[in-house]
User: Fold General stress protein CsbD from Sphingobium chungbukense.
Amino acid sequence: MGELTDKAKAAGNKAMGAVKEAVGKNRRDPDLVAEGQAQKAKGTVQDIKGSVKGALGDKI
Assistant:
């Protein structure tokens, strides 16, 4: 995967994580809140990975 692919997936995971977190808070569902937070964290890691690939080249 290239830098742009990682960053696109990161944006998707961050957005879906935020939605899950908000819905979980609204429904008072701590499991869904935690799932949303975990998905946002996964998106952050993917974003960092994409940035590293961009800095070092897509061959990593």
